[in-house]
Specification:
Layout lengths: L9 E5 L2 H15 L4 E6 L15 H9 L3 H7 L3 E3 L1 E5 L7 E5 L12 H11 L10 H7 L14 E3 L2 H14 L3 E4 L2 E6 L6 E6 L4 E3 L2 E4 L16 E3 L8 E7 L9 E6 L2 E7 L4 E7 L6 H10 L10 E4 L3 E3 L3 E2 L2 E3 L5 E2 L7 H14 L8 H27 L7 H8 L4 H13 L12 H10 L15 H20 L4 H10 L1
Parallel strand pairs: 1-2, 1-11, 2-7, 4-14, 11-20
Antiparallel strand pairs: 3-6, 4-5, 8-9, 9-10, 12-18, 13-16, 13-17, 14-15, 15-16, 18-21, 19-20
Helix pairs in contact: 1-6, 1-8, 4-13, 8-9
């Protein structure tokens, strides 16, 4: 057992933004009656504002908090998101949608992709996405909450408005906010734990457990506790981003767009009142000024804000929980937002903290398990993001040439080889992306050499009827859905 109070009561959250206020909201809603929660932030310190696109796990987080979806969506200018359209990733001119739903129908022995692979060989299979409800709905710009089985969806949201919404939520539940910047972190010489934070105005904020939500700089977890950082930039070489908001050029789509470019990729995130735009790029292949010029010249509508430049390094803290400090959000590490995992990683860390919450004192065994689970999750997402860069036919620039030649982590290489040789997907415990792996591998152009032999139990006519029935049932279901914007206006404004 570490040398901490027998009972953890004083929680200090350093930093606001999405990570800080999500943490404050969850702790105050679940354990607020047992804790004294203080959040320290400064209006003078800007937030990165990442995470305007999310994945479906945010719904579960909101259910934990008891958040009303319609209220939340109205407050954050949110739209529904059924997936991500990847443009120019396999090669220039090609596009596919990574949808959030499950594709086709599996059997006890193998996944649907095996039936589809044989159907493709016979020339009777349509595009893989045609067998996924969310894909068809996204492609036709349709959405609704339906019964008995809803579409799997996430949100596009305004990150600044989301933080403000959660701040109001948290303060209603007793969270105390202190305006100020951290000038000093007091470390107990005996235990190595954080005792208190000294703010620029001289105020001292003491706590039993500190949550570091200070962004890339990791003011507590790194600058004070020197936890260390594991660099992944040799696998994910992009290290800059530029973000700008613009007017809408068309009606909000129910999916995010990711457009590959010679030096990186560009995002388009549709909200109700505006569109989020940005570019992620490798600074050793293009200057910041040229990247900004390309972003602005490619906007389809007038910009609403000045471009915001962001520098980052992909990787993770060696420990997300060290001593009496837990890093949540960008302070714990960074993976570029290609698959919209930023907010998911925040909510996942919060839920993990609640699972291991040290109400009766911090235990080393719990710290170890927390960090182990966090690392496994990050590695899985890291590998999934690397997949998009590695499996591609693009060779048109130094960035893509480098990615094609680079050696990837063994954990990813095993997945790629298994799928290429057998069509099987190696699923890890609590895999975040299950159906997504085959969607993206096929979308990026990785074609398996074989399919599961059980598929041959169907003759060609049976297989044709099987595939046709699935596709047609989905098409009929999707055709009954309203247009995304029509449903959004009705749902959010009613």
């Amino acid at each position: 057992m570490t040398d901490t109070p027998d009972r953890i009561q004083r929680i200090v959250i350093a930093g606001g933004g999405t990570a800080g206020w999500m943490t404050a909201a969850a702790l105050s809603q679940t354990l607020g009656k047992q804790l004294n929660i203080t959040l320290v932030e400064s209006d003078a310190i800007g937030t990165v504002g990442v995470g305007e696109a999310t994945i479906p796990t945010l719904q579960y987080f909101h259910r934990l908090l008891g958040i009303d979806e319609q209220e939340f969506m109205a407050a954050t200018q949110a739209t529904f998101k059924l997936g991500i359209e990847f443009v120019n990733w396999r090669h220039t001119g090609h596009k596919y949608i990574h949808a959030f739903g499950h594709t086709g129908q599996d059997c006890w022995a193998c996944g649907f992709q095996h039936f589809w692979l044989k159907g493709q060989q016979l020339g009777i299979a349509h595009d893989y996405g045609d067998y996924c409800p969310e894909h068809q709905a996204a492609a036709t710009e349709r959405f609704a909450h339906t019964q008995p089985s809803n579409l799997n969806y996430a949100y596009h949201l305004d990150a600044g408005n989301y933080a403000r919404y959660l701040r109001h939520f948290s303060e209603q539940r007793g969270v105390k906010r202190i305006e100020g910047t951290i000038s000093d972190v007091a470390i107990n010489p005996g235990t190595g734990n954080i005792d208190s934070l000294t703010l620029s105005q001289g105020e001292i904020v003491r706590g039993d457990l500190f949550i570091d939500c200070t962004g890339f700089r990791g003011r507590l977890i790194e600058q004070a506790l020197h936890t260390g950082f594991e660099d992944w930039s040799h696998w994910l070489p992009c290290d800059r981003a530029i973000a700008v908001q613009s007017e809408h050029s068309h009606q909000p789509l129910p999916y995010t767009r990711s457009i590959a470019q010679p030096h990186g990729w560009q995002w388009q995130i549709p909200l109700t009142g505006r569109q989020g735009n940005g570019v992620v790029y490798a600074s050793n292949t293009i200057s910041d000024a040229d990247a900004e010029d390309q972003l602005l010249s490619g906007l389809q509508a007038a910009p609403l804000t000045e471009p915001k430049r962001i520098s980052f390094r992909t990787g993770k803290r060696r420990k997300q929980w060290h001593k009496n400090c837990v890093a949540i959000g960008l302070s714990s590490g960074f993976l570029e937002p290609l698959e919209s995992t930023s907010i998911h990683l925040i909510s996942s860390a919060i839920l993990r903290l609640l699972d291991f919450f040290p109400l009766n004192g911090i235990k080393r065994s719990e710290i170890h398990e927390f960090n182990k689970q966090a690392e496994l999750e990050l590695i899985g997402i890291r590998d999934f993001v690397i997949l998009h860069y590695k499996v591609t036919q693009r060779r048109d620039s130094p960035l893509w040439q480098y990615c094609q030649q680079m050696t990837v982590p063994d954990t990813l290489q095993e997945k790629l080889e298994l799928f290429a040789q057998t069509g099987r997907v190696l699923k890890e415990r609590n895999e975040l992306f299950e159906d997504s792996w085959q969607q993206v591998m096929l979308g990026q152009g990785l074609q398996p050499e074989a399919y599961h032999p059980i598929v041959n139990n169907m003759n060609d006519d049976e297989l044709s009827r099987f595939l046709t029935q699935i596709r047609q049932q989905i098409a009929n279901r999707v055709a009954q859905l309203p247009h995304h914007l029509d449903y959004l206006r009705h749902y959010v404004n009613r």
